[in-house]
Write a structure and sequence with these properties.
36% of the residues lie in helices and 24% in strands. It has 9 helices and 11 strands. It has helices at residues 18-27, 45-54, 64-70, 91-100, 116-129, 146-152, 167-176, 213-218, 236-252; strands spanning 6-9, 12-16, 31-37, 58-62, 79-83, 106-110, 133-137, 161-164, 180-190, 200-204, 221-224. The radius of gyration is 20 Å and the shape is elongated.
């Protein structure tokens, strides 16, 4: 594989091999995560790992077989990086955009949304609904890969996505900025009776587990969608869409 060649596999852009990875890290390009084979953390790999750590890049140890699979059998030499399709913003950039628009902040927090199709659909709806940005965690979450970009159908170009280390801590910071945080979960208050005209953030939980316990405790309120059928939950991106347009409706009638 040529040193500058990218491998597209499983919806991610991947650069594999010692020299290509070194150059990718040195160039300052937006890297989603560093993948390093078990037992490869010393020697020539140590400075690369240190540089990625310094830049806040997620570092994940995987099996050589996993790297073989992700890189399509390329000569990865035990190391690869996943490239983000878009740059990540800071949460402050999201709040700044709300100020620029002279609007109350409207933020979507994705608590461990792992399906890239769901994250892409949420990004697409958030852009259409006029949200100022989306917050995702660094770990246990879909990232801004090719699949997310495709599912967002172009909306990723216009949506500010911030990636943070700890969602619960970030909620505390938002509340200090006057943002009301509402978690979407079962057994909450009827979403249609909630006032979203103030600065607000809506937390959408993991597809299977929902919102984490600590994250739920940090929320100012838990809101629910009424269920009238045989099932008791909706797809994460569908639920997010309903709640985002509840914010739109609430603010439009202000």
């Amino acid at each position: 594989m040529p040193e500058n060649e990218k491998v597209k596999e499983q919806g991610n852009d991947i650069i594999a091999g010692r020299n290509p990875v070194i150059e990718a890290v040195k160039s300052g390009r937006e890297i989603d995560r560093l993948l390093i084979a078990h037992g490869m953390t010393g020697g020539w790999a140590a400075p690369i790992i240190a540089k990625c750590s310094e830049r806040g890049i997620l570092i994940k140890e995987v099996s050589p077989q996993k790297l073989d699979y992700l890189t399509g059998g390329a000569n990865h030499q035990g190391i690869a990086v996943m490239i983000a399709t878009q740059k990540y913003y800071e949460v402050s950039d999201i709040l700044d955009l709300a100020k620029e628009r002279n609007e109350a902040p409207f933020i979507i927090i994705c608590d461990e949304i792992e399906d890239p199709h769901n994250l892409g659909a949420i990004i697409r709806t958030a852009e259409a609904a006029g949200a100022h940005g989306i917050i995702i965690p660094k770990r246990r979450s879909a990232s801004l890969n090719v699949t997310v970009a495709k599912s967002a159908s172009g909306a990723l170009e216009y949506m500010r996505v911030a990636r943070v280390t700890n969602i619960a801590n970030e909620i505390d910071k938002l509340k200090e900025q006057g943002v009301w945080v509402f978690g979407a979960d079962m057994d909450g208050d009827d979403y249609s009776k909630t006032d979203f005209t103030s600065p607000c953030a809506i937390v959408i939980g993991n597809e299977g587990k929902g919102i984490g316990r600590l994250v739920a405790q940090k929320c100012d309120g838990i809101i629910s969608l009424p269920m009238f059928g045989k099932i008791n939950s909706l797809n994460a991106s569908v639920a997010a869409g309903v709640l985002m347009y509840a914010v739109v409706r609430s603010r439009s009638s202000k």
